[in-house]
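Quarterly update from the structural biology core.
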Amino acid sequence: MEWARAMAPESVDALVIGGGIMGLLAARELHRLGMRVCLLERDRPGRQATWASAGILAETMRDSPDPVDVLREHGQRLFPTLVAELRDETGMDVDYVENGLVIPALDDAQAAALERETRALRAQGVACDFVSGAALRAAEPALGPRVVAARLAAGGNVENRRLVRALELAALRQGVRIENGVQVTALLRQGDAVAGVRTQAGERLAPLVVVAAGSWSGQLDGLDPPIPVVPQRGQILALWPAGQGPRRVVLTPDDPYLVPRLDGRLVVGATREFVGYDASLTAGGLAWLLASAIDLVPSLRDAAVVEQWIGFRPVSADGVPLIGPAALRGLYYLTGHGPTGIAPAPASARLLAALIEGAPPPVPAAPYDPLRFRARSAA
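Predicted structure, tokenized:
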């Protein structure tokens, strides 16, 4: 695909709004297509939802009909390559580790359901095991007596803060222009096409604009269709275990999760609250996280609390991301990934790039089509 070069030297071919993992990966993919890219970030790259994440890479099921699962499964398969590329480009290790998952059952009924589910997953080719009794204690000695059984599965985590630092550094070295502290307020248009954006620091012009602003994506003037994405507050904290913590990521169906980091910290999260942009850490939220963690791993009652923070996940109206072209020519969306933004990010960015380039998409694109919301509003 050829891109016009008859613009001023300081002009760019594409603007990316948002510097989280989605925006940084989008800029990376557009650069690979030969475009000159400028990324506009209202804060600093990666300091919003991506910074607050736990970086979990959970078990996935191939051939799942759920579009969120499809992106997660494909994205996680791309992670080892991405990690290796970033190490070559920046010299940074992003602490990617495949330490596995443990999905606990807290009573006999949960254990029976988990065992049935594990048999079904194994029948579909998913590598996992149901354990109880001595096998459970050998696999995860730190788990307390409340955990009566568990599924052990593939998975792991990545240090999301190191990941976005590496992506930012790689982008800068590739020549991507990054403007920090620049808040985009509106789209500029020329007829039926996007022409750039208006920011608090002036206008930025480009024939292609990608909206990857997380939970703030829907606040821009001139969007067509509107982006039905709202913030979901997640409170999260990090502990320094006094004794042995879990070896694997502990992932309960409705949270909390426990994520052991390579530096010895244990990340515990997260609440799921629709309270707008209230950035408060609440006594109830933190108490629930701590009590739940201690219930799973009793030795954590002696752990030191080393950090507490919040993030705003971008949750779409139907729980499925918006990826692809909008109604305005040259405008694309890459947002709405909710609480699972890290794992699917490489696949989401690849899908976006394929749709821009006109190449075969790596996954079926229809479920993520932003125009589905335009059709619903017109119905």
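The first helix runs from residue 21 to 32.
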